[in-house]
Amino acid sequence: MTRPIVLAFKFLQTQSMVEIWLNEDLETRITGKIVGMDEFMNLTLDEAVEHNSKFNSQKRLGKLVIKQDNICLMHTLEEMNL
User: Over pLDDT 90: what percentage of the chain?
Assistant: First the structure.
């Protein structure tokens, strides 16, 4: 089993587009490229976009920091296109 920090570092190295599900907010997803992270797995995303499924809306956020305790799930969007 791959540790989450190892997976996040792999996404950082490959500049993959990722989707992040937020903790305690089932309607909101954040997509973007990981451009920085620390040892606690706080992430800096570039080209971040907030997707809200309840209102079927998108909002461009640009550069964004997400604290690790707000991350519920993270996956790359490139794998979904295989």
Answer: 83
Q: Which two tokens stand for residue 20?
A: 């992040």
Q: How far is CA 6 from the centre of its chain?
A: 14
Cβ–Cβ under 8 Å, residues 50 and 30: yes
Cβ(20)–Cβ(28) below 8 Å: no
Share of the chain above pLDDT 70, in %: 95
The residue to which tokens 């973007």 are assigned: 32
Q: What pLDDT does residue 26 have?
A: 87
Identify whether the C-beta of residue 50 lies closer than 8 Å to the C-beta of residue 62: no
CA distance 80 to 60: 22
CA 13 to chain centre: 14
